[in-house]
Amino acid sequence: MFDKLPVSSKTEKILTKSLDEMISVEEANHLMNIRGADFYPLMATADYLRSEIVGNDVTFINNCNINFTNICTVRCGFCAFGKDADDPDAYILDDEAILAKAQGAVDNGAREFTLMGGVHPDADIEYYEHLLHLLKGEFPNVMIHGFSPTMINDAAIASGIDMAEACERLKSAGLDTLPGTAAEILTDRSREIICPEKVSVSEWVDAVRTAHEAGIPGSATIMYGHVETLEERVEHIDIIRKLQEETHGFTEFIPMTFMHEYSPIFLEGQKNLGATGTEDLKLYAVSRLMLRDLIPNLQVSWVKMGFRFAQVVLTAGANDLGGTLGGDELSEASGAPDGVDASIETLVNMVKNLGRNPKERNSKYTEFYPVKY
């Protein structure tokens, strides 16, 4: 495959191996550091593996973010969304407002509610159950992709129950899938800098494992481009890979490039924040080579990258465009380059322009629907 390409012998050996099996951590670290002529063969290999594993379909979901509160006790250094309870911009949506937002999304064809918010100090499992019953009672056929391992962990503590009981209760109340948020970067060194009050790496892994064992599948994410090293990016992907080999509960892997402009750590003077474009592409390509079909769906966060660069990332191993979003206040607060709403027509045009096939899906990638455009 690489006979006529000016690629180094070590990179060629790794890429050739990747056509048949997952690459190792050591090999992934090498690829994260390549430059020059080795770059395009990496992209081509990741794109080839994508086509072999999932074909030429590019999927997305019609969904709506319902951020029910921005009050948060876990004030992370990367987050521009959370507020203290006494902040004049703090809010908690009441039931009427939540249902109104949900109804608007359903009227627009939404198949999923992404139910998220800050880690509210008074939120317990009973409160999250109430939100689930509220939405499922009115919209029983819309899937709920909700909460985070940190939110559930803290709510379980507030209710005096363990994580297993918390997951069982949330599933019974209508939770369909779990977002991969709160993973950020799964190394305790970096977490101590950017999110010291969130769950530790081992606590995050245990929480997600428990959710999977309770029958709640969900996303895996990585947030990169802040204080972590290239090696820590690979370490994170390897942790996700090992957990997936154990539980098979991840439906997708979502790299999220860090938007630093309004983040507290940037405003406080932290330098060298934000990944470059080639770093973004290498992260996606290496993820495909490390995960292959173990997690077949590799999602581009267009809200983090903008529509044009997200389309480019679809040539680096990715096969999913996430959702239409319908109002992602968390990303909006961080300075999303193309806003936080996408029409189905916009996503479809991005896909068709690449010569690939757009398909709408559900939260679990178990049902697919014809696109009307």
Description of the molecule:
This protein is α/β, with parallel strands linked by helices and 373 residues long. The chain has 16 helices and nine strands. The strands form three sheets. A four-stranded mixed β-sheet has the order 7-1-8-9. A three-stranded parallel β-sheet has the order 2-3-4, covered by helices on one side. The protein is globular.
Key terms:
single chain; 373 residues; alpha/beta; three-stranded parallel β-sheet; 16 helices; 45% helix; globular
Low-confidence stretches: 331-336
Helix content: 40-55%
- Number of E strands: 9
For the biggest sheet, the summary is:
4 strands, mixed
Biggest sheet strand order reads 7-1-8-9
Radius of gyration, in Å, reads 20 Å
Mass-distribution shape: globular
**Average pLDDT number:** 88
- The succession of helices and strands, N to C, reads HHHEEHEHEHHHHEHEHHHHEHHEE
Which quaternary structure do these chains form? single chain
Q: If helices are DSSP runs of H or I spanning 4 or more residues, what is the number of helices? A: 16
Structural class: alpha/beta
Distance between the termini: 36 Å
**Beta-strand residue percentage:** 5-15%
